[in-house]
């Protein structure tokens, strides 16, 4: 599947973005795109692409790149060396932090011992503590309601503690509700590409709506999806930080309850996955001030629901769990990968391209976001290989800590450009012409989100015009969230994410 992904998705995505970004760089001081330069870029990419080689190194040779882990550092060292080989200068790992505890996997397994042996399709969540070797226990179905709202989550947790306190010692606790719609969910396509009609609709400006009034001290997030979207688009960066801080506090409190109870392990139902996929993220806090979470695993719905049904039938079930991790006691620093191509007449002005380099630990980090990192490394390789004479300096940033809350790009922006909380800006703030980000997986670039920067519309229309036959058609005033362009937007810098 990785090979199919490399050949059929990433190369197409890369062709669109490498050309659009390179043209953006060369056209910033011009009235129109230089089509001779466009053709040189196309020829270099179509005939001499290195993007699959880059992605294979990141995904196969190095694999998971959890922030703060030795695996991240090894992959970052490789990327830095490769950027230097391309001829970029000022290439360095820029330290930020301290981040939190380092955490890596060494060994794990979740098995059903009774009534029949079965090796379960499971994966541990990051910053779980190790078990004391292989431990056996009885599973208990004790689901804890999932909610977006910290306020409701706090109330639900209090009720949960009252119900289960004193009943979970030595148990393996199933903390998710079983789901019974597997057949229905598998009837839907695994992936969906935007149709032409959907892209046309996206290009239309949304109707103006009044911003929701939000009480920061009492963040009650709507459960309705549309209302929840309005809620988050009405929040300032500071409000979003406060929201996630409250979610983090709730997660720590939940983990501490299970630790105090003496539960052997926790198991969650992976309700997002299908066809054997597993989405494993974090169980608890990476902050050394807090304890690690209990050994926590996510299990595919097929296996989770079987255990739940057996428990419901009063059948004796026994599970065995084993988790061995390698973790630091104290906080470690994290790193962003930074390098640049010096400009000419306006070398003090900067255009940045970037993607997040970190990933979760349960896969190879190919789509999230090895693809984006490989594309951006290919962008600067081609610009350097063609020896294009650009007025402005082009800088690449490959970020860590994105999966934990855009931490690496936030730290970089605060250090170099300004503090979003105080809006105290540095002198370098005025030198950044724009930041172009790539995340959200693989596939062709279909267009760009303007992030409310309507003045950029004619520029993007000019830059992207030569690539309409590659499917780059949509320029939308709408915003998209969840990745590192937001760190730049938060201090008033033009940051963009591609569709």
Produce the secondary structure layout.
Elements: H1 2-27, H2 35-48, H3 51-62, H4 70-86, E1 89-114, E2 118-119, E3 122-124, E4 135-137, E5 139-141, H5 150-164, E6 172-174, H6 182-186, H7 196-203, H8 225-233, H9 237-261, E7 265-270, E8 296-300, H10 301-312, E9 318-341, E10 346-356, H11 366-385, E11 392-399, H12 407-416, E12 418-419, E13 424-425, E14 432-437, E15 447-449, H13 457-464, E16 474-476, H14 485-489, E17 495-498
Parallel strand pairs: 5-6, 6-7, 7-8, 10-11, 10-14, 14-17, 15-16
Antiparallel strand pairs: 1-2, 1-9, 3-8, 4-9, 9-11, 12-13, 15-17
Would you mind describing this structure in some detail?
The protein contains 14 helices and 17 strands. By secondary structure, the protein is an alpha/beta fold. It is globular. It starts with a helix and ends with a strand. The N terminus is likely disordered.
Short description:
With 499 residues, the protein is an alpha/beta fold. The protein contains 14 helices and 17 strands.
Output the radius of gyration. Answer: 24 Å
Give the overall shape.
globular
Total strands: the figure is 17
* Main β-sheet description: 10 strands, mixed
Low-confidence stretches: 1-30
Distance N to C terminus? 23 Å
Residue share in β-strands: 15-25%
Helix % is 25-40%
Arithmetic mean pLDDT: 88
- Helices, by number, come to 14
The secondary-structure class comes to alpha/beta
